[in-house]
Design brief:
Layout: H1 9-14, E1 21-22, H2 35-40, E2 49-51, H3 56-63, E3 66-67, E4 72-75, E5 78-80, H4 84-91, H5 109-115, E6 130-132, H6 133-144, H7 151-170, E7 178-180, H8 190-194, H9 198-212, E8 220-221, H10 225-235, E9 254-255, H11 264-272, H12 293-298, E10 303-307, E11 310-314, H13 358-365, H14 385-394, H15 430-441, E12 456-460, E13 466-470, H16 471-477, H17 480-486
Parallel strand pairs: 1-8, 2-9
Antiparallel strand pairs: 3-4, 4-5, 6-7, 10-11, 12-13
Helix pairs in contact: 3-11, 4-9, 6-7
Length: 487
Amino acid sequence: MGETHRGTRANLATYAVDRFRTRSHAYVEPDERIIPNLQACGFGHIIKVSNNTIDRKFILALQERWRPETHTFHLPIGECTVTLEDVYMLLGLPIDGKAVNGSVQHANSMCVRVLGRDLVEPTQGSRGQGISLASLRAYYDELFFMDNSTEEHVWLMTKVYIMLMFGKLLFPESTGNTVNFFYLSKFDSISKIRKYSRGSAVLAMLYQSLYKNAVAEKCTFYGLAFLLQVWGWWRMPTLSPAGRNNYTFCGPKLDYSKNPRGSVVLYRDLIDHLRAEDFNWRPYLLLDHEPNESDREVWTAVVPIIRFNIVEMHQSDRVRLQFGMHQPIPDPPTDLGRWHIKRVNNQWDHTDYRTFAPEFCEMWKQRRSRLLQFPVAQLPMFPTAGYLAWYRTVTTPDMRSHGPLLLHFYTGMGGAKGKKVSMVSCSRGVEEVKKKNKEVSAGSAGPDAQPQSSGVRVVTNVDSSETEWDKDWYQYLHSEEFARREK
């Protein structure tokens, strides 16, 4: 992590938080006439998001933890990231399908052919890449109030609404007031829209925004910040709004309009003190929903994810715990080379879009041969001592490590059922642990009583053996009292 990364201690101290902003827009209610078409196109679940209010302080706190070279967040508990599984489970967008790529060179007449009106702003030139969201909304309202339910009219309304949804929610641009022009090339029919992997395209744009905003001087977060925010709430419930709605897949409309604007200082502190039990590696296990089999098959794939000129890498091999698998020390991340971080204009030279990042497009086509191959554990998995020892050497030295990074260095102290607790002298907090032991032992049962366990926590180790942890000691090691003393 270089000196320009916004997560360094020096940049955290000097960055003006109020400069940071996210691109989000007001919700547009779909007309009931077009809902069957939206469902047929694969957008039946995403239209249930009735408000996508963003807590930009929370987004900033997560952004500060992003490592661009690995496409992962570096938290005290290890690496984690937004995966294709998260996109499917939180948004209901299809994952399996063709990569969303194609030509970015189209005449403005395509807008007339697909949407029935030229909505490209004249000031943007004959190669106009953007359609004004204001013009698009006015056009949708005009169609909405027409007393016309013919199949042609409803399909036209559907296409206009999808473009609005792309510009306002799924693919918000850094400009904040336009939606890219090239999406229209995929709008010929419902079947054509359906066969593309919209979920991977959404994630690719989110990754690109995280990559660019990792530089301290950047201040505009584009892409689907809503996805990142809800991902953070589900993975780290202690950071979520106290009254947030319970999520049920394909359930009632989600409305996060009342979520609080937190303090970035508070969010930083909560993330710095994140304990092992504060991060949910597998939050969707209890959802009453059976995922689409073809989507579930591919969401562990280590593959490039593509949205026209954007090529990013889905490094699922670095976050195997999120899929219930043992996490070994990962291999170096994939280098995307000259195809990474390309502007749309960089693609003008490729008159045949198939010459743009051909090797990575082929990798996406072969996604089923790039799946993670490892047994899925029935019990919760946790980072191992070997992994955390390696992780200490590669993560930012500014990260506070008095929390779960020390967890496995206390291995062996967690006895159960009245056994004496053995200590491991591996940190400067061990004397405090001994003192706590004396305090517990001197309780109401008498000075000679043994500390009694309130329960046992079983952790599966790398060699498939199990370690019993005394919950009292586990909780104490992650208490505020121990955290203060460990500083």
